[in-house]
Amino acid sequence: MTLAPRTPEAITPDPPGDTARPLLTQSWLDLAFLHWVADPDEVARVLPAGTVPDTLNGVTYVGLVAFRMHRVGWFRLPGIPYLGSFPETNVRLYSVDEHGRRGVVFRSLDASRLIPVAMARTAFRLPYLWSRMAVERDGDTLTYTSTRRWPGPRGAHSRIAIRVGERVAEPSELEHFLTARWGMHNAFFERSVYLPNTHPRWPLHRAELLQCDEDLIQAAGLSAPTGPPVSLLYSPGVPVRFGRPARPGGIPTP
């Protein structure tokens, strides 16, 4: 049966609510957002039950997002300095559910700490993967590298280099669509879960792509992108708070 969602909620650069009693806190730092146009039919086949591809002007996207996760913490406890801080690179899609809630769906999440990867895979059924990773900065140039270790496909990799440019004074509708996401959809024991998040408005910058050598998108079961990304942005980052899902959910990430 084809899902008939309600009219999707508005795209807003600021969160629709607050998270007074967070389930989880963390910061996302030094983010590179790379996006390509994706086939809606292909995307639909890999989304959790109860969701369909979210589109803007009839187009949906696949994102490759590289960043530094910083001090993940539970409830109001201080963030963990070592196990809670690590490089991460996500392959993500854009979704909307039958309630009209827009979100992201993660096809893969490469991270450099084995214990958080094992916990997220076992307890929350998220597609985390253990990889050898680094984020290096030289002036206004950032380089993000990742080589997968476990569980595979072993050797799946990415190397992204960008040069950070000027601040985006007025992000476009597309730039808000790709970055202002206030929740994630995930399948948890074959049940669809929506986990909300809040954070300040993204500080976004233009960026120049110096290098992009990756096969993470194809390793995530999607067609390899052709050509340069249609959108490339950088953000120094934001602090993030996650609320409680209606049912058990996963560890969120951008």
UniProtKB/TrEMBL annotation:
PANTHER family: DUF2071 DOMAIN-CONTAINING PROTEIN, DUF2071 FAMILY PROTEIN. This is DUF2071 domain-containing protein. It comes from the Bacteria. The lineage of its organism: Bacteria, Bacillati, Actinomycetota, Actinomycetes, Kitasatosporales. Gene3D superfamilies: Acetoacetate decarboxylase-like (2.40.400.10). Pfam families: DUF2071 (PF09844).
